Amino acid sequence: MITNPSSEFAIQFWGVRGSIPTPGNETARYGGNTSCIEMRVAGKRLIFDGGSGLHVLGRSLLKQMPLEAYMFFTHYHWDHIQGVPFFTPAFVRGNCFHIYGRVPDCQVSMKQHFMERVLHPNSPVPLDGKLEADLKFYEIQAGDVVKLNDITLETGPLNHPNGALGYRVTWQGHSVFYCTDTEHPSDRMDENVLHLAQNADVFIYDAMYTDEEYYHPKIPKMGWGHSTWQTGAKIAMAAGVKRYVVFHHEPTHDDNFLDKVAEELKAMFPNGLMAREGLIVDVMQHDA
Questions:
Q1: Quick one: CA dihedral 134, 139, 142, 147, positive or negative?
Q2: What would you measure as the largest C-alpha separation in the chain, in angstroms?
Q3: What is the spatial order of strands in the sheet that 44-48 belongs to?
């Protein structure tokens, strides 16, 4: 579903894959870049996660500089940061990026954590003196609320190895909940996820596995920090979500596999969507 990209509240998907990039003919339609989405809200640009999709986003922004953007990280596993050293606008003077995230051990500042633990050790090129954009850092914890004028971002804890944050973005009564890299207790749905998903216009969810994969008797995926598209649909129904987006596709799930998931998804949740690179969703339009 490609809708009006000039909407005052729109989402664009730049990377939709989990774990590792998966380029190739078999993933061309859904895309092989790892997690990165952009929200354009009331004239502001919000970027969530910096997987390899961030490199593609950065190239598209070169014609729009100078620019200011707000970057929010769920966590710092490779598939959520590997595009950062290749984000060209960060190397250009005159640009400004506000960078938000959680510091896992709270022993250092967000700036030190990001530069010394996230960016520097994972960059193939020296970065000293080359990041010429104005970088501003903000440490946040689960439960914090961030206000950007009349845009509100609520945060919540997710169940993932080393921890992760979910983000609910609200503007003028419309909300998007970005919820990736999480799974639920064995006996119930996660109350934090249900709370942030409540009545959301768009629910973007880590649906890396199918139920059959997650509960496989010989090689189950329980405890790996990811969920299933069926669980996401159940949350969407329980929380009164308007549109549910299946996100963070498993690397071995090729286009044909995801086509089958899309068919089953429509039967279970008619307003369900499969995330694919280039998809633009108008948050203020309710019909999928």
A1: negative
A2: 55
A3: 134-139, 96-101, 68-72, 44-48, 36-41, 9-15, 280-282
Peptide bond into 124 cis (omega under 30): no
Gap between the Cα atoms of 154 and 200, Å rounded = 12
- Can you give the pLDDT at residue 129? 63
Instruction: Calculate the alpha carbon distances from 159 to 71, 85, 170, 175 in Å.
Output: 21, 27, 23, 22
Q: H-helix or E-strand containing 99?
A: strand 96-101
Query: Nearest CA to 15 among 74, 64, 66?
Result: 74
pLDDT tens-digit profile of 78-126? Answer: 999 999 999 999 999 999 999 999 998 767 899 988 888 787 777 777 6
Which amino acid is located at 75 in the chain? Answer: H
Residue matched to tokens 């669980």: 231
Residues 233, 127: Cα–Cα separation, whole Å: 42
| Among 3, 40, 36, residue whose Cα is nearest residue 282 | 3
Contacts 24+ apart (CB under 8 A), 117-123: 117/76, 118/76, 118/81, 118/84, 119/81, 119/84, 119/85, 122/78, 122/81, 122/82, 122/84, 122/85, 123/85
Higher local confidence (pLDDT), 121 or 163: 163
DSSP symbol at 89: G
| DSSP state at residue 113 | I
Which contiguous run of DSSP H or E holds residue 155? Answer: strand 151-158
pTM above 0.90, yes or no: yes
Alpha carbons 43 and 5: distance in angstroms, whole number = 12
Cβ atoms within 10 A of the Cβ of 149, count? 10
Alpha carbon of 250 to those of 31, 39, 63, 105, 265: distances in Å?
11, 23, 32, 29, 16
Q: What is the pLDDT of residues 189-220, one digit of tens each?
A: 889 999 999 999 999 999 999 999 987 778 77
Q: Which amino acid is at 40?
A: R
